[in-house]
Write a structure and sequence with these properties.
This protein is of the alpha/beta class. It has 11 helices and 14 strands. It is elongated and about 90 Å long.
Length: 333
């Protein structure tokens, strides 16, 4: 007569069943190996092997000789990338257009097929089953992928918090740190600690708030005016007001806003205070604008690595990669 199963082994099996039936794993995704079960739950290799065999017989697990154990179901074969970009990336010379150009170039270099989806920020697109979504400025797309437990990649943004974050890879930068970097550049240029101003973007954009918070962590008395958009039109509407205070220096939370300030000073023959932008968009080079640069090439290279791993069947938990900014010193600081 076989020995009765110990309470510990019964608990181990219950834990394995709960893990398999939790509803968060990808169909066809790899499960714990026999050795991993033995080590994690402090049972013998033979006991772990027997438990996995029982789970397979109960239809909760699939085992493949010389390969390992897998969650039941057929994994989806990804055939390409679905680029989901906010429609403002269609605007020539914009931050989004530049990023789209770079990511398309690297996908072609790697021989990765891709399709484009243009949407507005709060509209959830239809996600292609056999494509890996790569999103910029489309939070609804990222959240839809997380709800569907579908792997996705967000560019220059944070993944969703909570359970959904386990499915959304991210390659981004630290906006708070970038704002602090801008403050340090202006302090070094002016040798002053007071009288600074910030021309921010939309007040409901978390990146804008983080950039301002980082700047004010170094220069807490900075006066802040927020534009209604990230485009030059938003900066034009605020230029007279922010320059009227004769600030010691100005941090523009993106390069298009900085462009509006430069344009205003040129049109009215006014002196331009020391100015630092953010992004290092293509317009920054033309304007010779000192800016806190997003490391575009490094971001796209990291994105290519994540995309390649997912298309090759990688189903490990999502990764969030944060890149340091690159201060770009030019004439206008």
């Amino acid at each position: 007569m076989p020995r009765p199963r110990s309470a510990h082994v019964t608990e181990v099996k219950a834990a394995l069943v709960a893990r398999l039936q939790g509803g968060f794993a990808q169909p066809g995704g790899r499960f714990l190996s026999t050795r991993a079960v033995a080590q994690r739950f402090a049972v013998s290799y033979q006991t772990a092997h027997r438990l996995l065999g029982e789970l397979e017989a109960e239809g909760l697990l699939q085992r493949r000789a010389a390969s390992g154990s897998y969650h039941p179901g057929q994994s989806v074969t990804l055939r390409g990338v679905q680029l989901i970009f906010h429609s403002r990336a269609k605007r020539k010379g914009s931050f989004g257009a530049h990023l789209m150009e770079l990511i398309e170039h690297v996908l072609r270099e790697h021989g990765v097929p891709f399709v484009r989806s243009w949407i507005d920020a709060h509209v959830a697109p239809r996600l292609r089953t056999d494509h890996y979504p790569v999103a910029w400025e489309c939070r609804a797309a990222v959240e839809a992928a997380a709800v569907a437990k579908k792997f996705a990649l967000c560019l220059n943004d944070r993944p969703p918090v909570g359970i959904g974050g386990a499915y959304v890879d991210a390659v981004t930068t630290d906006d708070f740190s970038g704002g602090a970097c801008a403050a340090e550049l202006l302090k070094e240029r002016t040798r002053r600690r007071h009288g600074f101003a910030v021309l921010g973007g939309p007040v409901d954009d978390p990146r804008n708030l983080q950039r301002i918070a980082g700047f004010r962590a170094h220069l807490p008395g900075a006066h802040v005016i927020n534009a209604t958009t990230w485009f030059i039109e938003g900066g034009r509407a605020c230029a007279r007001e922010i320059l009227a205070g004769n600030p010691t220096g100005i941090f523009a939370c993106n390069d298009r806003l900085a462009e509006a300030l430069i344009e205003h000073c040129r049109l009215h023959g006014a002196p331009l205070p020391p100015l630092v932008g953010f992004d290092n968009a293509p317009v920054a080079e033309r304007l010779r604008l000192t800016t806190v640069g997003i490391p575009w090439n490094a971001m796209v290279a990291q994105a290519a690595n994540v995309i390649t791993a997912r298309l090759q069947g990688g189903n490990e938990p999502a990764r969030s990669i944060s890149l340091a900014h690159e201060p770009i010193l030019r004439l206008t600081c």
